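Page 42, continued from yesterday. The earlier attempt failed because a stray header line got pasted into the input along with the sequence. Redoing it now with the clean sequence only.
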Amino acid sequence: MNWVRRNSPTREELLASRFVKPFAHRVAHSHLWRFTRTSVPRGTALGLFVGIFFLIPGVQILGVALLALPFRANIPIGAAMTFLSNPVTTPFIIIASVWLGDWLFGLHANSVTFSAMIEHGASAGEWVRWVFSDAAPAMLAGLFVISLVSAIVGYILASIFWDNWIRLRWRRKLARARDQRHEASTSDTAAG
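This time it went through. Structure tokens are written below.
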């Protein structure tokens, strides 16, 4: 949790964004910034979905902040989850999404071409031609499926993690109370 708090934009930084200002009064609502049993899994799912489906840096965090409103999701967790797609993972996400889109929908995009274009440093024109071939529908379909599955798995794992974390905190609290009672009873017997 501390890593998320350190690396996520603060409430003030997010509200200062010119894209968020029209919605600032809603985004500033405290339930979007609290770490609760329901908001953390929602933030995880939303961040994974937006982070994978919208591969444009900067748009991801703002997208999570705006979509957190109707879903009542935790903004810091959602913003942190968008970092799953980064310069290291994005090529793999794109290749997997093109392959998945090809496989699921019978499209004929060529993910090998994508790898070759990265290796020889393709020009912007080559990228545009590749995207407007069968690659675009395959990639979008694959991105949607991957982001949806990631969001569902993220929601389930975050819920399980949250429940186990709360259980662990309660066990520690009960153990401390039991130890304090035991210490108090042994000190009473020793004094008496």
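Notes: The radius of gyration is 23 Å.
Reminder to self: strip header lines before submitting.
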